[in-house]
Backbone:
């Protein structure tokens, strides 16, 4: 069996000015500019975006970048960007900007990308198959190291060099391959069982696409991805722009919703 360990780029050394470990703060934005403070989750999400921009600047051979340029490419304002970067101990030089290579290493280190992240994907149906074939994960340091399903028609097939194995092997294979991130792309009813297997194999980070809430022990992080929720948020913003969303505040007696009309 061949396992594609991906084309993970060599990690840069972490500059010594980096704060020794950065704790996550609860979901909040803002805070004092101090490298010793926990990093808010909103900042962590933006750091990932900065990293994407920095990686493309590095590929273009850029040595420095101004906070304005980096902020514009990341879609945030430059004051917020400087504040985010100060939280991880990074500061630019007035009139010069940030050293792209150094800042990339600092952001990678903060995001924990200076250590390997082998990914196991469970459920190789429509969504899982597309994710398994997406080369961008390996390029950004997340090689797909294991694939699992229960469908006999899928078990034994090979996707981009990785053999699909039966889900019964999750514990053994994930432990053997040092999987650190598990992606759940099974139907909702199988997701908790799959998650339990991943956790018992030592996987401490789970990305869940199934429309269900997973229970995990303390110390295991679950992120849920729901594109329909994102679309609903977009829908809200469109509706608000068109003035069809009531302003926040106590709900006024309103017109019946379509559902109420139909249930009468
Ligand atoms: N979050 C999102 O935005 C989003 C978008 C699309 C789909 N989804 C969800 O992702 C999941 C997969 O969707 P899909 O369209 O790929 O479905 P699918 O039916 O095509 O694929 C599901 C796969 O999971 C496998 N499976 C079933 N039980 C399993 C188990 N115990 N262990 C391992 N594999 C198992 C099936 O054999 C199948 O290959 C669903 O829960 C769906 O609701 C989420």
Residues:
């Amino acid at each position: 069996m061949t396992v594609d360990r991906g084309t993970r780029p060599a990690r840069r050394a972490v500059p010594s000015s980096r704060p020794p470990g950065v704790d996550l703060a609860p979901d909040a934005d803002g805070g004092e500019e101090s490298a010793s403070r926990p990093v808010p989750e909103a900042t962590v999400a933006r750091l990932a975006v900065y990293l994407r921009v920095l990686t493309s600047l590095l590929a273009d051979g850029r040595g420095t970048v101004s906070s304005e340029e980096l902020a514009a490419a990341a879609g945030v304002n430059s004051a917020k960007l400087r504040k985010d970067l100060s939280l991880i101990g990074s500061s630019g030089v007035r009139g010069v900007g940030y050293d792209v290579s150094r800042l990339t290493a600092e952001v990678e280190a903060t995001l924990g990308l200076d250590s390997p992240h082998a990914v196991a994907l469970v459920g190789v149906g429509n969504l899982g198959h597309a994710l398994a074939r997406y080369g961008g994960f390996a390029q950004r340091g997340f090689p797909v190291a294991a694939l699992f399903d229960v469908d006999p028609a899928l078990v034994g097939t090979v996707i981009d060099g990785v053999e699909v194995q039966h889900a019964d092997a999750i514990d053994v294979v994930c432990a053997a391959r040092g999987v650190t991130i598990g992606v759940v792309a099974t139907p909702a009813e199988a997701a908790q069982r799959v998650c339990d297997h991943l956790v018992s194999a030592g996987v401490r980070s789970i990305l869940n696409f199934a429309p269900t809430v997973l229970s995990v022990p303390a110390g295991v992080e679950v992120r849920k991805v729901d594109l329909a929720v994102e679309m609903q948020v977009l829908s809200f913003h469109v509706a608000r722009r068109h003035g069809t969303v009531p302003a926040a505040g106590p709900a006024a007696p309103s017109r019946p919703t379509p559902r109420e009309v139909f249930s009468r």
Confidence is low (pLDDT under 50) at residues 1-35, 256-264. The pocket of nicotinamide-adenine-dinucleotide is lined by residues 122-128, 148-151, 154, 167, 185-188, 190, 193-194, 209-211, 225-227 (CB under 6 Å). Residues 9-113 form a domain with the Arc Repressor Mutant, subunit A fold (CATH 1.10.10.10). The two ends are 61 Å apart (CA to CA).
